[in-house]
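Quick entry, no commentary yet.
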Amino acid sequence: MLCLDLIINICEYLKDTNYYLLNKSLYKTIITVEKGKYWKDKYDNFFKDLNKEYLILNGDYNWKREYIRIMRFNYWRKIDNVNTIIFMFSMNIKEIPKEIGNLVNVEQLILSNNKIIEIPEEICNLTKLRRLDLSWNLIEKIPKDISNLVNLTHFQLNDNNIKVIPKEVCNLTELRLLIIPYNLIEEIPKEIVNIVNLKNLHLYGNRIKKVPKEICNSINLEKFLF
């Protein structure tokens, strides 16, 4: 049984923050020794009395470096898995942290008018997502795993630097609105007809010279702006 007096010795405290850091190997060791939730209650109460908190990191690496990496995302600190809507418009965000993939209850994610360059693969874990707005950024690529977002109905990526619409986007059969104008796209995949519920498709302001004939078979398409 681990003694309370050892807690401070096995955790590393960052003096400029309010956190003790605990790495994954040590976390597993504690679970093995304590064999139950008792350890968690014990630690929670101990740090509560100190008016401190502890953070379990997912890896065996430099705790301070990883903690600083997470904490530099100022706008994300207070977001937890209770949130269903994340709205961060024009906040000078340059990077979406990979931890976004843990927020599996998010249904609307609006990060427009920022300076985001990359969509992390982890965003494709948000299977409850219905609206994804990444317009007015610097994004160059849509991840292929985007097809995991099976409940997505609104997808906005206008005013970015996207060159290709991957075929995987065409597997998003619940999409009603796909907005990708003012990018660098040269071709519309013919598989776009597979998005059977698509009503609005906006692709103007790109480099597209030819529209695939298959798009005429999109039975629910009401507005196609090219």
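second:
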Amino acid sequence: MAGPFTLPGSAEDAAAKAKRTATVRVKEWVEARLPLEHVQTRECVVDVSEVQCGDPNCAPIDTVVRIIYGAGCGTVFGIPCEVHEVEEGDIDSQMPPDEIIQQWAAGEQAVWPPEPETPEPGPVPTDALRFDVGTKVACRIGPGPEGWATGTVVAHWYRAASWPTGQYAPYQIQLDRTDMGSGLIFAPYDEDTCIKAA
């Protein structure tokens, strides 16, 4: 007779182990490109994770790398594939130059990657949105049932300066959690699969 609980199968165990191994490998690649003393003294922390991408023009899962120094310095960059698909060359193409790393280590804010030339924004959409500014919401930030985070809508029709002309996200959200940089994210769609009432 089968009980109410099932244990993960060996295929699930193998997939989870492969993901952990790939995550460690990518983290080691990033750390190898930083000054050894920064990593050894934990002056710098490297975090690697997968997040669900809501943009239909990108991969469904991105690998996100966070390089975090004190005083809020550092960077976050994404690689449009699952962590086991990341190649060492992907890391090389995203890493900041040594002078930027030294500025972060000194507690100086330095932008990386540099902002590209700003395209014209284009007209702001006028579509009605479901959630008003100030509304508590839950946003999809990763896969699975644990991939939701609560926050507050802080703006409608958010647009990053580097986005192509006419591209806007319906919402900008300030997350309640404090482990994701500034905690400001955007919801690319006004749909329950991306943003819902908290």
